[in-house]
Amino acid sequence: MTKMNREAVVAEALGLLDEVGLDAVSTRRLAKRLNVEQPSLYWYFRTKKDLLAAMAQAAMTPHATAPLPAPEDDWREWFLDNTRSFRRTLLMCRDGARLHAGTTPTSDLDRIRHKIHFLVASGVPERDAQMAMLAAGRFTVGSVLEEQAETNPSGRIDLPADMPGIDHTSAFEAGLALILNGLVHRTEV
Questions:
Q1: CB count, 10 Å around CB of 144?
Q2: Using CA atoms, how far apart are residues 21 and 117, in angstroms rounded to an integer?
Q3: Burial class (CB within 10 angstroms; exposed 0-12, middle 13-18, buried 19+) of 41
Q4: At residue 31, does pLDDT exceed 80?
Q5: Which of the residue ranges 28-37, 104-113, 135-144 would you say has the lowest mean pLDDT?
Q6: Which helix (H) or strand (E) holds 166?
Q7: Can you name the residues that pair with 167 across neighbouring β-strands?
Q8: Radius of gyration of the chain (CA)
Q9: Which of 5, 31, 74, 142 is deepest in the core (most CB within 10 A)?
Q10: C-alpha to C-alpha distance for 137 and 147, rounded to whole angstroms
Q11: What residues contact 144, with CB distance under 8 A and at least 6 apart?
C-alpha cells in the first residue's frame, strides 16, 4: 500500500464506494482495506460525514477542473456543456449523485462565482443566472440519482405501455433544453 495520507485514504474510500456502494461504505471496511486500525482514520477525518464530504469533493475533480468559460464563449453552449460535464462527473462514480447530494461546494465557490459572472456579463440577469445554475445543478443530481438507482439493465425508463420509452440521456437532454429555453426567454424579456 502507498504511504497513507489524506489523499490516499480518500482514493481508497472511493475505490471502496465503487465496489460496495454508498450504503456499505464504513470506516471499519475502509480501515480493513487500508490494512490499518479503524481509529487511525480519525487522524485524517474526525467523522464519517467529514470523510464523505472529502470523497464527494474528490469525485467532483473532473468537473471542478474543467476549463472555465471565456468571455467570447456563447453562454448558451457553455451552459449546456457545463451541465453535461457535471452529469458525466456524477456518473463516473457509483452512487455519485447520492454522494454529492447535500454537499456544499465550499472549495469551488470561486469557480461558481466566475460562472455566474460570465452569465451576467453575457446578458443574463444576475438572479436568473444564480437560479439557473442552482436549477441545472439540482436537476442534474436528481436525474443522475434516478439513473443510478435504475435496476433496468436496458437503461431505458419503464413507462406504461401506451407511452413511448425513453433513455436516461434523452430525458436529461430534454429537461436541460427546457431549463435553457426558459433562461433564454427570460433574457429576451
A1: 25
A2: 37
A3: buried
A4: yes
A5: 104-113
A6: strand 166-167
A7: 156
A8: 19
A9: 31
A10: 15
A11: 87, 90, 91, 96, 97
pLDDT digits (tens, 9 = 90+) for 33-88: 999 999 999 999 999 999 999 999 999 999 999 999 999 999 999 999 999 999 99
Angle at 47 between CA 42 and CA 53, to 5 degrees: 115
Cell matching residue 175: 429537461
End-to-end CA distance of the chain: 59
The three three-digit cell numbers of residue 174, written as one number: 430534454
Contact partners, residue 186, CB within 8 Å, separation at least 6: 124, 125, 128
Domains of the chain in start order, with CATH, are 60-188 (1.10.357.10)
Average pLDDT over residues 99-113: 84
Residue 179 and residue 136 in contact, taking contact as beta carbons nearer than 8 Å? yes
How far apart CA 26 and CA 127 sit, in angstroms, is 40
Q: What cell was used for 176?
A: 436541460
Q: Which three cell numbers mark 26?
A: 464504513
Give the position of cell 466566475. 114
- What amino acid occupies position 105? P
Task: Report the predicted TM-score, pTM, of the whole model to 2 decimal places.
Answer: 0.89
- Cα distance between residue 125 and residue 53, in whole Å: 32
Q: Concatenated DSSP letters for 116-128? A: HHHHHHTT--HHH
**CB-CB contact of 34 with 9 (8 Å):** yes
